[in-house]
Amino acid sequence: MADHDRTGGGLVLALKSWKVAFFSPLPPERSGIADYSAELLPSLARWVELALFVSHPDQVDSRLRATFPVYPLADYGQMRWQFDIALYQMGASMYHDAMYPVLLRYGGIVTLHEYNLHRFITTRTIPRNDFVGYMREMGYALGIEGVRWADEIRWGRREHPLEVSLVERLLDRSQGVILHSRFAQEYVQRLRPALRTTVIPAPIGMMPECLLTRKELGCPEDALLFVSGGHVVRSKQLPLALEAFLRLRKEHPKVHYVIVGEELPHDFDLSGWLAAHPVEEAVTYVGYCEDLRVFYSWLAAADVVINLRSPTLGETSAVALRALAAGRPVIVFDHGWYAELPDDACVKVPPEDGEALLAAMRCLVMDPEKRRAIGERARRLACTEHTPARAAERYTEFIEWVLTDSPIALRGGGRG
User: Fold this and answer.
1) pLDDT at position 5 over 90
2) Alpha-helix runs per DSSP H in 45-130
């Protein structure tokens, strides 16, 4: 492979055209990481040669299949010698289930979208009558105490220790790990100080221009609109947000709340909660949007986006980033990755503090100039720090470091 120069973001690097096997959920799968990968891939392809590995190549979005070679996961074992490195996009949902054994067997670079994999490991073992597999992971993480703990869980004497991340085996099989926050990087470095890590701000594409209007969305055009988006799960703290909203509505009757996203089975029952509360005129539950343009349109239609997460497991919120790109003020809890957002580009409140949340919502309702100013700074942040082109350049620097121990300085995240 010949050396050549490529330019991105003002930085000129002399790099080999590395051949990279890329593992990730991909559209049309209902995964934020699938959308993340689809937005990253065109920019990353400017720097490295990519092939995609998925469970069902024929189901991948036709635009990706027309651009990249796409192979079944099962083919990687015999094809791996054709690649310089494997790059995995790893999250805690079951969209990563089939990819995970490949990662453990062959290793590579891992982008860890959330550092706690306990629920993921639990879901892929216990319901499949593989309690031994769960016990094995507890033992790997905690030694003999983990094995004893798992045995007590099996007989109902203890609860699952969800604070135990069960990420250790993955880290030990990785040649390097990419994180999206210093918070997550510090967690990984405490577990494995010698592991190469870097922080790359999560990329997000800019909002498309042809968005639907409030009228086209069927939304009250004169309402002051709060919007929450993404998978409907307990950790999004929607009851807390809705209770604060209903109190606010007594003061400001024209406020409206829209929730856009898919309810996950065996998690928070939003439909049941809404049915038990008299909120029909004040709250709209849209559900899952097959068309991303519709989802983006709801974020762009918002006056305020509420994006809460507690507890945080080191995740970076794509919904929050899309709201920033739309130029909307976002209310977040002040911890984890969210705490690393600039104070003037969002509104931060203490985790699970309903009174502080209500005060923040009230302040934004009453001050349109503040909403505008925060939204403008949010858009500027997304346009400068979170572009796919910038992320792709940083990905390439990290790949170069892992493969060659190149002295190229990694910016923003440092070496772990």
Assistant:
1) no
2) 62-67, 76-79, 99-106, 118-123
